[in-house]
């Protein structure tokens, strides 16, 4: 059985007081027999539990190693400082990036090559994705914006503005195509 603990112990040097802690062993002795997208979300959940247990500053080295493993094995990057609700679904996740401090609520579906992050303008503001949003392939959602609940973002859209709930959004730059009733 290949598990994260074996991968880390065989390939990385981590402070023994962290990697040998009972809580870390419990979290990392998990079979890697899952899809890459499931593994990416699983590693994110492990990182959040490690932060809760040790604090971010005390476990930075292990968090960075897990981030590296996440990118290497899954081609999906989910920053451990993102806030993600229940039932995140990543479909064909290759190239997907969920940046630091992005907020994603419950029941969100993200397709391949989606980027959620800042605009690169130094503002460090990140998007908030509300419940039941679907983001199709190649879309970029950037800056301190909010995508309302039950919205759909069309493929290859570049979203730089907030949109209300029940929106259908598409284009580059993205614009409101229509709204639906829930």
Summary keywords:
182 residues; alpha/beta; 15 strands; 29% helix
Structural class: alpha/beta
SSE sequence, one letter per element: HHHHHEEEEEEEEEEEEEEE
Mass-distribution shape: elongated
SS element count, helices: 5
Termini separation comes to 45 Å
Write up what this structure looks like.
The chain is α/β, with parallel strands linked by helices. It contains 5 helices and 15 strands. A 6-stranded mixed beta sheet has the order 3-6-9-12-14-15. The chain has a 5-stranded parallel beta sheet with strand order 1-4-7-10-13. The protein has a 4-stranded parallel beta sheet with strand order 2-5-8-11, with no helix packed on it.
Secondary structure blueprint with pairings:
Elements lengths: L3 H8 L4 H4 L2 H7 L7 H19 L5 H15 L2 E2 L4 E2 L4 E2 L6 E2 L4 E2 L4 E2 L4 E3 L10 E2 L4 E2 L4 E3 L3 E2 L4 E2 L4 E2 L7 E5 L2 E6 L3
Helix pairs in contact: 3-4, 4-5
């Amino acid at each position: 059985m290949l598990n994260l603990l074996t991968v880390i112990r065989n390939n990385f040097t981590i402070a023994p007081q962290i990697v040998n802690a009972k809580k870390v062993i419990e979290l990392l002795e998990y079979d890697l027999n899952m899809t890459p997208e499931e593994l990416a979300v699983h590693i994110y959940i492990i990182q959040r539990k490690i932060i809760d247990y040790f604090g971010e500053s005390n476990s930075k080295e292990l968090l960075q190693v897990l981030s590296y493993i996440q990118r290497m094995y899954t081609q999906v990057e989910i920053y451990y400082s993102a806030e993600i609700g229940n039932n995140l679904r990543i479909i064909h996740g290759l190239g997907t990036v969920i940046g630091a401090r992005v907020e994603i609520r419950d029941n969100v579906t993200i397709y391949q090559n989606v980027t959620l992050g800042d605009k690169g303008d130094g503002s460090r503001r990140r998007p908030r994705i509300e419940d039941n949003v679907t983001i199709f392939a190649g879309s970029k959602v950037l800056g301190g914006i909010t995508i309302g609940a039950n919205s759909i973002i069309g493929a290859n859209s570049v979203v730089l503005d907030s949109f209300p709930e029940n929106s259908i959004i598409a284009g580059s730059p993205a614009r409101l195509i229509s709204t639906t009733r829930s």
